[in-house]
Amino acid sequence: MRSRSTSLLSIAAVSALLLAGCASTAASEPTETAPAAEIVESSVSEPAAVGERVGADGAQLEVWSGIVPDETAAGALGDAEAGTQWVTANVAQWVTDEDLTGADVAPVFRSTADDSFSAEAVAQQSVDVVMAPGKSYSYVWSFQVPDALVDAATLVVCVGEGDEGCSSLVAE
Fold this sequence. Notes:
Strand content: 25-35%
Oligomer: single chain
Largest sheet: 5 strands, antiparallel
Low-confidence stretches: 1-34
């Protein structure tokens, strides 16, 4: 019985020393952070796959799911205009600049089937918060898409109006 107690006390003492060593880092020393995920090169014509991070001009996003068409969006946003349907993308988003909100970096929908198509994002959340650089934020964005273009295989979500930083809505 005594050897079992001695062993437990020894293990406790070693654990306490290890924990004390971990806690002794000076507060002024920077701590290691996890490296940012690699930003995949992408464009409207060659979008990244779902789950890959894309970016341009200090804004990044990663699509984690898409709903094509999204009949439930009408409950939160109202009916889509005649000849269009709601399509929704759930994304994680990051920024590198200070004082930007989700509305400032709202993604744009594009189509590989029609170069002229572009749709502005409509937020399903009612609060727009200031995003801290390097932190991940999840957003649910909906877009009104013409009936003829509602095809998950041809719709892409882009970080802006340009031709870079685009992601597919469908997993490959």
